């Protein structure tokens, strides 16, 4: 009888059920806190879910591979959620078509700034070459960025982490930063959020304003396209 | 609901298949997005298509359900930070600073360009 709780833990900790439940429960709590603080930028639900679950894994000595066996069911939905962005895009199509020119110009300027600034800053900071390459695609959504990183023979798992960190920082900083610039056009604000901070920025934009969310989603999809071409080019030109 | 989710998955599946088959340098789900958008637009044009998930806001409701919890979907990849603790210990501050500066530069460059161009266009319209 005495070893029962332990063998139960050994059984559960290897099952996908436990880690899926932990992911959903922790996120539900951090999301509730975010809602209770009226979506304060610093109460970002992804940031807090990440460190709570991470600390739990370290404390219980659980490997990320074991955790991911359960969490992959959530991770999988990133693809279908990207497809689902077609719906807000469809519903706001007249506004989108009306802003097509500023969108495309901002897309080119933003994508180039995202890639060039991170590569130059990382070189300036003296980071190792493989780290610089892994950081380069950080402004696009996780799946795409990891693909780019793989094709550069960089480290896709470091890319995933830098993508999430970028998304979280972008989501935290976007509202105070935009308020300071005095830009009140929610099309422009949302577009910038999605371009710089992909899906996490888009989730933030939808919390602030529906139109901002729509433009953020478009920016995220378009940037995935542009960055796929841009990163290999920038790396050839800029990395020593 | 089931048909709507199937339609979303089908769009992604076709997207992935085409991207792989033709070796296109774009992510499969983005092509899936375009496909679903074309389907929705075509439905308004041709009554024949307005059935199943494309009727009574079926696919619209399912999509909004998925998007309502978009940030949750990033948590599993984010927890991957536990695998990178040694790298973060040696280069963490530099990496975070580089990413933070780059994200601020990107946000500002994008939002200011967007506003500048839409103002220029409005001035042209006014003339």
Class based on secondary structure composition and strand pairing of chain B: mainly alpha
Helical/strand content category of chain A: mainly alpha
Radius of gyration of chain B: 21 Å
Residues in β-strands, percent of chain A: under 5%
Tally of DSSP helical segments of chain B: 5
Helix content of chain B: over 70%
Brief summary of the model shown:
The complex is a heterodimer of chains A (240) and B (127). Chain A has 240 residues and is an all-alpha fold.
Keywords:
heterodimer; A: 240 residues; mainly alpha; 13 helices; 83% helix; globular; B: 127 residues; 2 domains; 5 helices
Model description:
The complex is a heterodimer of chains A (240) and B (127). Chain A is 83% helix and 0% strand. Chain A is an all-alpha fold and 240 residues long. Chain A has two domains: 76 residues, no CATH class; 161 residues, no CATH class. Chain B has 127 residues and is mainly α. Helices cover 76% and strands 0% of the residues of chain B. Chain B contains five helices and no strands. The radius of gyration of chain B is 21 Å and the shape is extended.
How do the strands and helices of this protein lay out in sequence?
The complex is a heterodimer of chains A (240) and B (127).
Chain A: H1 4-13, H2 16-36, H3 45-60, H4 64-76, H5 78-84, H6 86-91, H7 93-98, H8 100-124, H9 129-135, H10 142-151, H11 156-181, H12 186-208, H13 210-238
Helix pairs in contact in A: 2-3, 2-4, 8-9, 8-12, 8-13, 10-11, 11-12, 12-13
Chain B: H1 2-22, H2 28-45, H3 58-68, H4 75-79, H5 85-126
